[in-house]
Design a protein that fits this description.
By secondary structure, the chain is an alpha/beta fold. Helix content is 33%, strand content 20%.
C-alpha cells in the first residue's frame, strides 16, 4: 500500500533524472575528458554493491604497473572541497570508505572532492607522476567522462525488477547501462544457475564490447580491531557474537555471521552511521548482557572506532571486524584485471 503512495514521487524523480541525462546528451551540460586514464566504479542503485572491495582489488593490481590515485566524493564528511586523505585523518573529515582505502594502501594518493573534475585537476597538479585515477561512485555523475566505466550490480536486487527512488532502490535509469564497459554482478548465490546468468547477461549487455562477470563476497576469519588487547585465540566456530553494521545492505554480512557463529544480537544502523561515545557505552552494555560474546562488525564500520580513548576497554577487548574481498565465480579475477589493464593502455 505505502509503496503505491510513493509511485508519484518515483515518477517525478525519474523525470528529473531523465531530463538531466538529456541535458548531457544535448551538450547543454558538459562532460569533461582528461589526458589520463580514469576508471570509474559506480552503480545505479542505492545501498552497498561492493564498490569499495572492487576499488581495493583494482588498486592492488594496477599499483604494480601504475602510479595510482583514488578520487572519492567522501560521502558523509563534514568538510567541503578538495582534501587528501592521510592515515591519521578522521573519518568525519574525509569519509569512512576513503579512509579505509588509505589505511590499506598508505602509499597511494587518496583524495576527496565533491566536484570530481576539480579533484582530477588538483591530483594532476599536485601529483604529476600519477598516471591512473580510480574514481569511486561517479557513473551517474557525468561531469567527468572516464575511459572505463565499471558498474556494480547486486544480484539480490535485479535492475529489471527494481523501481526508481523512493519506490525502489534505483537512483539512475537502467537505460544508461549502455555507457558501461564492465558489469560486476555481486552477491551471487553459491550455485547460480546458468539460466540465471544468461538472463542477467541479456538484461545488462546493450553494446557488443560490454563484459559481465559474476562474483560473490568472500569473507575471512574476523580480526581483532585492537590486537594488543584481544585474545590471541582465533574466534571459534559457533562462538556467541553481537553483529554490528552501519552499511547500505547488511544482509550478506548478517547471513555470513549466522552461518558461522551464534548471533545473540543484531545491531543494524544506517549507512555511514556516525559512532559517538554513547554508542560505545551501549555496546559495553550489550556485552554485559551476553557474557563471553564478542562484537563483529564490518571493515567500513571498524575504521570509525579506531580512537582508543573513546572506546571502553571491555569493548576494545571484544571488538572484531570481518575482512571481505570479491571472489569471481566463472572467469578468474586475473582474467578481468588483465583485460582492464589492456583497456587502460589501449585506445
Amino acid at each position: 500500500m505505502w509503496k503505491c503512495l510513493l509511485a508519484p514521487a518515483a515518477l517525478l524523480y525519474k523525470a528529473g533524472v531523465t531530463l538531466r541525462h538529456r541535458l548531457f546528451d544535448w551538450g547543454v551540460l558538459k562532460s569533461e575528458r582528461f589526458d589520463i586514464p580514469i576508471i570509474c566504479i559506480g552503480n545505479i542503485t542505492v545501498g552497498g554493491t561492493g564498490k569499495t572491495p572492487m576499488a581495493e582489488m583494482i588498486i592492488a593490481y594496477m599499483s604494480q604497473m601504475h602510479r595510482v590515485a583514488l578520487l572519492s566524493r567522501g560521502y558523509g564528511r563534514r568538510t567541503k572541497g578538495y582534501l587528501e586523505v592521510q592515515c591519521n585523518s578522521h573519518y568525519r573529515m574525509v569519509g569512512d570508505e576513503p579512509l579505509q582505502i588509505k589505511l590499506k594502501f598508505p602509499d597511494i594518493v587518496v583524495a576527496v572532492c565533491e566536484k570530481r573534475a576539480d579533484g582530477i585537476r588538483r591530483i594532476r597538479a599536485d601529483h604529476p607522476d600519477v598516471d591512473l585515477i580510480i574514481m569511486d561512485d561517479g557513473f551517474q555523475h557525468r561531469y567527468v567522462e572516464p575511459k572505463i566505466n565499471i558498474v556494480m550490480i547486486d544480484a539480490t536486487r535485479p535492475v529489471q525488477h527494481d523501481k526508481m527512488l523512493p519506490q525502489g532502490t534505483l537512483r539512475d535509469l537502467p537505460e544508461q547501462l549502455h555507457r558501461a564497459h564492465y558489469f560486476i554482478v555481486t552477491k551471487c548465490p553459491e550455485r547460480m544457475a546458468p539460466i540465471d546468468r544468461r538472463i542477467l547477461r541479456k538484461v545488462l549487455i546493450q553494446v557488443a564490447y560490454q563484459r559481465v562477470y559474476f562474483t560473490r563476497f568472500e569473507s575471512f576469519m574476523p580480526q581483532p580491531l585492537y590486537a594488543d588487547e584481544a585474545s590471541s585465540e582465533p574466534l571459534r566456530h559457533g562462538a556467541p557474537v553481537i553483529a554490528l553494521s552501519g552499511i547500505g545492505n547488511p544482509r550478506p554480512f548478517l547471513q555470513t555471521l549466522h552461518a558461522r557463529y551464534d548471533v545473540v544480537e543484531e545491531v543494524t544502523l544506517d549507512d555511514h552511521h556516525v559512532y559517538k561515545v554513547r554508542d560505545m557505552h551501549a555496546l559495553a552494555e550489550r556485552l554485559a548482557k551476553h557474557p563471553g560474546a564478542v562484537i563483529v562488525t564490518t571493515e567500513k564500520d571498524a575504521v570509525k572506532m579506531t580512537n582508543r580513548a573513546k572506546v571502553p576497554a571491555e569493548v576494545r577487548r571484544a571488538l572484531y571486524y570481518l575482512p571481505i574481498n570479491i571472489s569471481f565465480i566463472e572467469d578468474s579475477a586475473t582474467d578481468f584485471l588483465q583485460k582492464l589493464e589492456e583497456d587502460v593502455r589501449g585506445n
